[in-house]
UniProtKB/TrEMBL annotation:
InterPro entries, A to Z: Gingipain_N_sf
Gene3D superfamilies in the record: 3.40.50.1460, Gingipain r, domain 1
Protein name in the entry: Gingipain domain-containing protein
């Protein structure tokens, strides 16, 4: 199996400085993952494939990946190193009538053709967080099972969240906001867990996630609530995976990834959708399938890809087509972290 690790030398250097420690760590990463043939390539430098370097344009970078595949053979996994200023997200047309001007997506990097909705490859991203030690940390993670989970939902989505959370835990233990808020949140709840699940409100401009009951929107979780979390994080919050011009100080996704024992994060880059009650759809269903595949022992990357494929099949069976919300859901959910890690 082939894995392409991709970044920009010049742009990543601007964000994190000297890249020598990263290059050395990736060599060790290759040796630890001998089941994969792994190549590390800078798209803006001369390379072993003799492919013309690409500019910092998503379309050019995608062509660069596909040209490598033509020379090397099918690539099963693409791992992007760096945030939006290094390897930019695609800005895709928003199929929904909402406030998002576009949908930030990594889906095109996972697709061989021009249908970006359903991934053909695993595609994950390790954001740079403006720190080279942050990137290296993601490449050095491992996991110990605890057979416990944590979940938190806005009160208005209680029933929908229970339907997802029951895949990984006892619905009686699901925290509801309100009454649970950042002020009475116990950081110990996030310790020694396999899965961390959140169905809360989010914002592109706020570092917090919010609960809801009627017109009340209390802060449910803030970065300072996270100190020693473990496991895999799945968030349905709007903008839960939005990291443009952010760090661990003002993005919960990066705060989670900065924990040594968090092995991955799945979330949405834009406004996300989901029903208030079962049956599961949109964000609920993507996360539900993701949990199921992770429990079956698939790698984080394979579980994420399969969850999107199954989501698309389910929605076509249910409606006969993929509606606007379904399309946006497929595009907006991204995976951060090492895609080769497993929970089971």
């Amino acid at each position: 199996m082939r894995m392409l690790i991709l970044s920009s030398k010049s742009l990543l250097q601007k964000e994190v400085g000297d890249l020598k420690p990263l290059v050395e760590e990736i060599e060790r990463y290759k040796k630890r993952n001998k089941n994969y043939e792994i190549k590390f390539v800078f798209f803006d430098e001369d390379n072993i494939f003799s492919i013309k370097p690409a500019k910092k344009k998503p379309k050019e970078i995608r062509v660069f990946i596909n040209q490598i595949e033509k020379k090397w053979g099918n690539i099963q996994t693409v791992l992007i190193i760096g945030g939006d200023r290094v390897v930019p997200f695609y800005r895709l047309p928003n199929p929904c009538d909402d406030d998002d001007a576009s949908v930030l997506s990594d889906n095109p990097y996972a697709s061989r053709d021009d249908d970006f909705l359903i991934p053909e490859r695993v595609c994950a991203r390790i954001p740079d967080n403006k720190r080279i030690d942050f990137i290296i940390k993601q490449l050095n993670k491992s996991f110990i099972r605890f057979d416990k989970s944590f979940g938190m939902s806005a009160a208005v989505w209680r029933e929908a969240s229970k339907n997802v959370y029951k895949q990984i835990g006892d619905i009686k233990e699901l925290k509801i906001s309100p009454p649970t808020t950042s002020e009475n949140f116990n950081s110990d709840w996030l310790e020694n867990k396999d899965f961390l699940y959140f169905n809360l409100h989010g914002s592109a401009v706020s570092e917090n996630w919010y609960g809801q009951q009627g017109n009340e929107y209390p802060v449910a979780l803030k970065p300072s609530n996270i100190s020693s979390a473990t496991g895999f994080v799945a968030s349905e919050a709007c903008y839960g995976a939005y990291i443009v011009n952010k760090t661990e100080k003002n993005a919960l996704s990066l705060r989670f990834l900065d924990q040594q024992d968090i092995i991955g994060f799945c979330g949405s880059t834009t406004i996300a959708y989901g029903p208030p009650a079962p049956p599961s759809g949109e964000a609920d269903l993507i996360v539900k399938y993701l949990f199921e595949y992770l429990k079956q022992g698939l790698s984080v990357g394979e579980a994420f890809k399969n969850a999107k494929v199954d989501f698309a099949r389910k929605m076509v069976r249910r409606h006969g087509f993929l509606d606007d919300d379904d399309q946006k859901t497929l595009l907006q959910f991204v995976l951060y972290g090492d895609p080769l890690l497993k929970l089971f």
